[in-house]
Fold these 2 entries.
Entry 1:
Amino acid sequence: MSANSPIGRVVATENHPTSTGSFRFWLTAGVNLKPFDFVQVLPPENSDADIGRFYAIIDEIHQVSDEPSPLSGFISSDFGNSSQSPRVGRVVTTYADATVLYNTNDIEMPVPHGSRVHYPDEDGVRSALGIDEYHRNTPAGYITMSGPNDTSIVISVDMDADYLVGPEGAHLNISGISGLATKTSYAMFLLSAIQQQADQWESGPKPAFVVLNVKGSDLLHLHEPAQDLDDRTRRDWERCGLRCEPLSNVSYFYPYCADEPGRAQTSLPSNEVSANFDAARAYRYFYDVEHALERLHLLFEDMDDPAQTLVSCVEYCRENVRGEAPWSALRSNVSDWANSTPDKSRIPVVSWRRFYRLFGQRTRNAMFTELARHAADYRQVCLSNRLRLLQPGDVAVVDIAQLPDYLQAFVVGDVIAALRDPRPSHPDNEDAPVTERGTVVLFADELNKFAPRHGGARSLTGHLREISERGRSEGIILFGAEQFRTSVDDRVTGNSGTHVFGRTTAVESQKDQEIRMRPQSKRVPFLRKGELLVSHTRFSAGTLKLRFPRNAYRPG
């Protein structure tokens, strides 16, 4: 069969007619197709109407025969002798169900019976997906589909940055089993694509990025090229129109440690930490009393406090402690209040003692300290001040992996508050000119820890809801990832304009309505490593199965 020959014909039957949105077609013998493949449909040879070409995506493939029932097949094989060929030959055909995406003449009529089905061309598929109409193209991966003579057709796919990082739409959510779904890898690929393509955008925000590292040294080498890059990986990057290189303009923020300058609370070896300090790409963030009091309520996010007594203790501390006070003074004051109970009508003694116990335990970490005399040598900085100085294209990696959960929530809350606070500041030089901060993309893995569907962090969940609902107007875009979408607050995931599904369990795929309502939902538990189902606001196809290149940075 030549490359230009039809691979099948549209069939409209009494029971299954074609429509403006879907049709069936039988396949020529020997043709192999897969769900998520694209096809183009030309009108029958004898058609005089100028209806253009249709482009469609395959939903499912079936095979049917004229065998009336399994019993007749059993009988024709000598009553169940599977080693014997059936005595009666059967007529067998394969057919596919397809969804119409696009018509070149903008005609919305049923696909005519007898129309010729062909393999698609790359330009036609990109037009069918609406990619040609994007204002700011951002590579999202590539489709690998069946082609003539058992070859593959590979087509690069873009997202529209207007609907990914604003202003028309925003936010992305990635879900799937840990490891198999490659959630973090895909998020970092998109960040690299945005960073590389932003210089070519004619208008619109050019984002900066804040990345939360929550697992070991997973995201602590984003500036280092991978050591095992092969030709295939480089070709995959070039296929997407990108350079095969790690992220640039990367800075790392480790929790402060009071030991020698080369130490920090991180899983990185001390020699790598020192090398990053020497290269001026890393800092150690700390919290003095002034900055800690602003976020002190976040330390108790996971504690039950129905009467709001812990909140009252926090407010009392804010009202009665000066910001320039040392930590020893604050701890001494809290100890005194736990013994004397200064405002019994407002806060009972048992609440002060509970607050004193929790406060002492949760501020024992070395990052709660004062500015050192040799702060420059220690690379000691206030995290929120530094984040307010981000410029377009900058990448700030905030390491929280070595912190306990309650301190992770504290730091994440501080990061979100800093990004939402429009007041610029310059901690090193008050006379330095201040530039207006643009759009910031915040990537948070294990989103279920910070915005759980039931219980857990309360005001932090509220902050993430605010970002998902109004962050686009504030210039804050949330890229979130989690193993199970059903464990994350509905309002946080539901406001995402782009949804990415990696391999997950059959139970989760049935529990999650976002997955279950898609025609290909039953395939989610069987996705391979590196395969993702992607739903983007601008895709005319509801869901695409995409692949993406291996990351070009050194893995953790």
Note: The longest helix spans residues 405-420.
Entry 2:
Amino acid sequence: MQASSTRSSMLKWGATAALLAAVCAFNAERLAGAAGVTITPIEAPTAEVGIGFASPAAAAVAVPSAPDAWGGVRTGSAATLSDRVVDYQIAATLDPVAHTIDGRQKLRWRNRSAVAVRSVYVHLYMNAFESAGSTFFTEQRRLGGGFRSDVDTGEGEWGHIELRSVTQDGAKVGRTFVHPDNGPETDRTVVRLDLSTAVAPGATTTLEIDFHTKLPRVVARTGHFGSFHLVGQWFPKIGVLELPGERGATAPRWNVHEFHLNSEFYADFGNFDVKLTVPRDYRVGATGALQGAPVARGGMLTHHYVQGDVHDFAWTADRRFAAPLEATWTGPGSPNVKVSVLYPPEYEASAAPAMRAALDSLAYFSRTLGPYPYTTLTVVIPPFNAEEAGGMEYPTFITASGYDKVPPKSAAATELDFVTIHEFGHGYFYGILASNEFEEPMLDEGLNEYWNQRMLQERGTPLHIAPPFVAALGINPAVGSFALERMRTPREEPADPLGQNAYNRLQGIGPAYSRTATVMRDLEARIGKQAMERAFKAYYQRWKFRHPSVADLRESLAEASGERTAVEQVFAQQVYQVAKVDDRIDRFGSAEELPQPGTYEVGGKRVEHDAAAVEKQIAAARAQWAKAHPEAKPGTGPFPFRTSVTLRRRGASVPQTLVVKFADGSTETAHWNNDEKWQRLSWIKPARAVSAELDPQRLHYLDTSKLDDSRTLAADPAASRRWGFDFAAFVQIVLSLIANV
């Protein structure tokens, strides 16, 4: 999903925005270092006796989950893909004028624990948008920023969800709003339901819930604009009861965080059977497969969707949608997949590119991680003025970006391609692997970003980032996939470990995407592409449909890659802690080892050579050399050269390679793989050194600056010449435009 303005909007803004983002990140790092921020640990509120809450400060898990966590590895031999914990049967009716949904929900929930459960906890996510007193808006004010495109909520544009009736076996269920993260009392995104009958270990209970949802004006992944409705996080969703051995838990605990500004979702796998009633002239798209033709009644149609082995359900309805673009994809190990693109007429140009990106994504992710397991994929392009609904994912249902024109090699083409790939990728990391996006966002946002950029890199897709008015001038630069991520990540003074949770970050959620992608890219460069792909396939195979933790990722990568030392070093430095990488060439010199004045023993006698005699000796040797070597290269001669390189380390230790090139065409390679803060290397060779380069294979994109990784003895004007010519060309274009006005 696009959880902040650092996502696809950065591509849309173009090269200028990329520079601004880098500058802002740099300044944020400096402020972080100067502020002396002190974080006070927060105690978890008390839940019911015997079952507590996950800590409000929960973040990266360090202890791997038990082998039988979440029902054990899903081998494909069971009747269902996941160990289904919940079953939702929902009937919902949309009022497109009031932008409300009236729903009736039958929720069956299984108690997996070994203790009786007397209260359950339910997310009412839509209440994040009922007032400025919610945790979501409170954090928005405290952090001093907006959300993605920064849409304000105006009068009459708030949203909410009401529980009108909750019963268990016909008995009324009491309810109380709670604050597991110690949020404001005015937040109502988590509610405790006190059951009339306790749920015994292993038993199942059924809750019948009548609810009413008012959609906000599209604000953060959900809402309405005109006749368009993107309906996400719209129904009461039960929290996750984690058991000992699952994601670091040592006792049963409820994982039910409030809806934070920069966090997303976490839920149990189950089955959804949903009937959606909308006006007859509205087109509908939703999670799952449509069950037969819609049923007409009066002026309404009821669309019936079913999907198993997912943990969420979202849908859209709009009378302005054009006839959908449809295709079928097939791949080894996957069922036939019906792919649909829903789009408004003004963005017809975006439909075909979105379809191409979706089909390519199905092929790439199925090949590199594992077969896509569902029979449908729906891509929604929101209309003009509803971009806040774009760039979001739900199981089998994603939203992309829309443009009225999508010229080849344009910023629009780049963003549409990337966002579609990105949201599809979430179907694996958020959907099938189903990590906890509140506590460990790197497992979804970061790993997905990394895999997206791998796909773009393998496709050879250049990322064009110039806005249209710049591209029209003939200036349309393209950047490499991971070069773009490197530009966006804080490198000089990173403040937050990758494993930090989504809502307690000094530098915001952006580094969870870009820095994770960069760290994973560097790990791949270090251990090799094949080892990395083997490790990620093993991670997916072991943890699909099971909610892995950061520790589970670490162990999968270490074991399957065969590179435990490298993996554990990276996780220690960058996931559980954070450290900059900043190795550089501090000094570089190469000089002849010439005879020096003094006394020397010659033939048993001590002879003094004064400066004049030494100079004469040197001149004679040079003349003799030149005569004997008429085609000798500059930088060679009768005397050896001593070359010295001093390396400095101002950050975490990483394995480095230094390559020194000499005038005679030879090279020397040295390796630096210890914790020392500096290293001095020297060689005596018959030729002068020409250049020295640290990290010649560019393994370390996380390095603060690549400009200090190389030195030449002679000044090299190539870079300044190139930028000078580029600037001159730009000035000529501007002057020609002025002359023709």
Note: The radius of gyration is 31 Å.
